[in-house]
Amino acid sequence: MLSLDVEAVQAFVMVADLQSFTRAADALGTTQAAISVKLKRLEEKVGRRLIERTPRHVRLSAEGAVFIQPARDFLAAHDRAVAGLFSCARRFALGIAAHVAGPEVTTLLARLNEHDPALTIEVQVDNSRNLLDAFDRGELDAAIVRREDDRRDGEVLGPEHFGWFAAPNFRCRPDEPIRLAALSPACGVRDIGTHALDDAGIAWTEVFLGGGSSVVMAAVSAGLAMAVFSERLAPVGTVEVSRKFNLPPLPSSEIVLHSTLTDQRSRDALRTIACAFREHRAAAA
């Protein structure tokens, strides 16, 4: 009967998620050589090449693409079994920036619950600045935010690109200021747009401010205003209108995971969060 080594399967899944032997080694706290050895032993045991590796690319082989979900299920079952032996209730407070929280959050929370069912997960959604303040006060165990100007250290989960979005029927006459909708005056994404307009000498006015993301999306979808959105989170049915209205380009940012937790259980949870986030973004690309 074929038996699988947990660490070897974990190495395979990490390489597949991060598309890099080096990043997989960093995430697992080991060396690239050790990752390569574990993957080679796994491939020899299953009799299949699972990862295609070239000087420029690391990707799943056809056999690896078939094996990846069973491998995840195998690791999840192992984690549940181990958690059952050492289960004790624990609170994990996670902050997610409003302009970061997208469809991947469902995957992230489900994967975190699979990894450690004993965790009580508390999620706080707010703008990046408020979450970083809460994180600094020790109120959050981890925070997923847009990179702020302070350039503080954190684990980069991926790039974030922004655009000007509006309903297809949105109209703005040349002699009128651009009508904007935003979450709040403290919203960093709002600042990205307003600073770009100011630098370009384009007049603007806010016609919707606050009320939550649903209100902002409703205002934009109804054709009452335009707004700056992450390209992956723009409301369904809206279009990018920078060319149509001759609007300035917007700088990109990064999505970053911050945490100071060092115990193994917490580090495992953080690794689960990072992998789930990257996996969902890669699948949606």
Automatic annotation (TrEMBL):
InterPro entries: LTTR (IPR050176), LysR_HTH_N (IPR000847), LysR_subst-bd (IPR005119), WH-like_DNA-bd_sf (IPR036388), WH_DNA-bd_sf (IPR036390). It holds the Pfam family LysR_substrate. Gene3D superfamilies: Periplasmic binding protein-like II, Winged helix-like DNA-binding domain superfamily/Winged helix DNA-binding domain. Residues 4-61 form the HTH lysR-type domain. Keywords: DNA-binding, Transcription, Transcription regulation. Belongs to the LysR transcriptional regulatory family. This is LysR family transcriptional regulator. It comes from Mesorhizobium retamae.
